[in-house]
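Task card 7
Instruction: Convert sequence to structure tokens.
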Amino acid sequence: MRALAAGVLLLLAGCAGSYRNSSVAITSIAAFDTDRFAGRWYEIARYPVPFEEDCKLVSAELEPLAGGDYAVDMFCHFEGVTGPGRLMTGTLRRQGPARYRLDLPAAGYSGDYWVLWVDENYRTAVIGQPGGGAGWILNRDTAIPLDRLRAAREILDWNGYDLDPLIFVNQGGPL
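Output:
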């Protein structure tokens, strides 16, 4: 999502570029609790993706479905525009432990979405695309504590992501 979403991330539209060094191995987390991951996530940072262009204040709601899948409602407000914003609905289909296929039909997007890290209490998560076309730092609240932000950035770096193009989103709380 920009929110997650966006990202979630989400990783959109066959991004031609990559934000990560493909020679670095990328891994999703093995011990992943699908029930604890459900719920609302706020986008704290993201890599530029077409389906989130001009979005701000992105959030995503993940509702558990059978087999570890999720229904996704991703919401974004547009930069400089007042009004209701845009809702993108889709599905995260489980492909393996903490590995999903995100489908956002209205955005014309489908892509891999891996949970690279989540803190012990499922308050902060790092999402990435194996090909490096997108990535997100998500949080349960609009503000993220510095220690978890630092940890999330370290996870992106460890998985080969270039931190320079990362866009921080001001959800209204301190970053």
